[in-house]
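Reply to dn_fold:

You asked what the input looked like. This is it:
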Amino acid sequence: MYKLWAKIIKNNKTINSIVVSNKEDIPNEKKRAKCIDEICKKLDLSVPLWLKKHSKEFSQFNSVTFYPEDFIDEIDFDKLEIELIDDKK
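and this is what came back:
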């Protein structure tokens, strides 16, 4: 199962968080995109732009941080952090 944990951070405090998962038999990139879409829908956010730097960050650290400049719409928090949860036992 593919799980992502998203945290909205403002003034160095987590003000909201959510975990979403995807069990579909599709490539991980598509699972990630679907999970991010679901996160943004549930948190009532526009989907941030996914740039090459985000791909690199996610592949190296299994997490990615989005800042206000990564969103088309104006946001009222400092950053959105998304982390892959490793549920392999």
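The beta strands are 2-10, 13-22, 63-66, 79-85.
Hope that clears it up.
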